[in-house]
Amino acid sequence: MSLRRLALLAFCVLLAACSKVTQENYAKLSAGMAKVEVESLLGKPTDCSGALGMSSCTWGDKNSFISVQYAGDKVLMFSGQGLK
Question: Would you indicate the residue range of the signal peptide (predicted)?
Answer without folding.
Answer: 1-16
